Amino acid sequence: SLITLLIVVAALPACAPLIQYRTNYELCVSDRLRPSAECETHALQQLPAQDVDSNFLLGFIEFDDQGQMWDRRQMWAVLDRLSTESAGRDLLMVVFVHGWKHSAKPYDPNIETFRSVLAELSRAEKQISDVTGDPQRLVAGVYLGWRGASVTMPLVENASFWDRKNTAQKVGKVGVTEVLDRIEQIRRTKDSMEESASRTRLVVVGHSFGGALVHSALATALESGFVHSTGPDGTVSDVAGFGNLVVLINPAFEALLFAPLSDMSTERSTYFEPQLPVLAVLTSEADYATRYAFPAGRIFSTFFEKERSITRYNAVAKTDEIVDEEDANRSAVGHFKPYRTHRLYPTDSGSRERAYTLENTDSFTRLQRFSQSWVNDKPGSRIPFDSLILERTTNSAGRNPYLVTYVDKELIRDHNDIADWRIINFLKQLILLSSQRPQDVQNILRMGKVPLQSK
């Protein structure tokens, strides 16, 4: 119609640009956490951590709307740097995939938050190294950029929700899979060279549609990791994942896509003591985009599909559970109650600034406490994180490596809010635990209580 045509024409000037932002592939070294303008076009940056004599790396790899890399030379520049660094030391590699309304554009808020997280991890690595005597790992971040917004006009941009969901899942199934596999190969190569004694680890984090993107890229690998144990064939052992940990924050994909992982883990009643977290899904109760808009849109996209009720066995509750396929097909994964394993909530209403002051003073002791709580985890357990509590449901097995967590609205206030220091510190501790070798965890527990350190 003429009205539709006029709306489209009027919206064209508000289209988000489809461009590559990081076109210089040389390493840019900065003495500031937020680098100067000349560094912002670099796909490789070396930046300082806070309050400690330590640096971290940050690389960028960008994709277009069809899931193709803007320039494979950009990918190779980042991978070659990681490979070079891994030859001489262990790495803690963290990949971040942004979500809706974000990109690799300089000064994007997601980039600023990611830099802060990498700095805190680097700082924590230094503190842990000082106590344990293990060589400090180099923290290396990789930011995967794609066009998270198709339009920039206020209000109108919210209509891009479904368009960007489809794009995210397309990007995840095309170029991102290769990149993640190649980064994982760096970890595997390091491990094989050191006869499985390497401390090099890989964590993948996706936010919003970045969570849907990561799930699209890794769902098969995660499912295979459960089916094929880390022990000999036929031996029930620890559950493997992709890399060492996958984190999805406010992920925007339907719960039914998560069914295989939830069903497999629910059928198992116990996990061994060395089992570490493999996958963590964090969804805010205040994420109204996935809580209300998502199921509303799924009504239309699933209108002609047929669903049924599924019966599955819960080994902890020792009873059958009924899963409504229609509800699971229309609900975002974190809002689908039958799949939840945890709640995360604050013990008080302390400010974000107070949380930063309290929770960044001694990473070793906090890692030690979390390790002890995780080893002793059981149905209904409450694990303290300073001002937070991670409470497992009563029908989820202790040390179940898949954490599907409903987060209090005080901690994540909306779909795009990921900057609360309490959440950042929770994720930091989760990453630090998941990136330890089983023998490292045991050594940390044997060291006894260590006094809190000063900054």
Detail the topology: elements first, then pairings.
Layout: H1 2-11, E1 24-29, E2 42-48, E3 55-62, H2 72-88, E4 91-97, H3 109-132, E5 138-145, H4 161-173, H5 175-193, E6 201-207, H6 209-227, E7 245-249, H7 259-266, E8 279-284, H8 288-301, E9 309-314, E10 319-324, H9 325-330, E11 342-346, H10 352-359, H11 363-375, E12 382-385, E13 388-392, E14 402-407, H12 421-434, H13 438-446
Parallel strand pairs: 1-2, 3-5, 4-5, 4-6, 6-7, 7-8, 8-14, 11-14
Antiparallel strand pairs: 2-3, 9-10, 11-13, 12-13
Helix pairs in contact: 2-5, 4-6, 6-7, 11-12
Q: Key features?
A:
455 residues; alpha/beta; twelve-stranded mixed sheet; disordered N terminus
What does this structure look like?
The protein is of the alpha/beta class. The chain contains 13 helices and 14 strands. The protein has helices at about 1-10, 70-90, 110-130, 160-175, 175-195, 210-225, 260-265, 290-300, 325-330, 350-360, 365-375, 420-435, 440-445; strands at about 25-30, 40-50, 55-60, 90-95, 140-145, 200-205, 245-250, 280-285, 310-315, 320-325, 340-345, 380-385, 390, 400-405. The protein has a twelve-stranded mixed sheet with strand order 1-2-3-5-4-6-7-8-14-11-13-12, sandwiched between helices. Strands 9-10 form a two-stranded antiparallel sheet. A hairpin with a 4-residue loop joins strand 9 and strand 10 (about 320-325). It is globular, with a radius of gyration of 22 Å. The model is unreliable at about 1-10 and about 450-455 (pLDDT under 50).
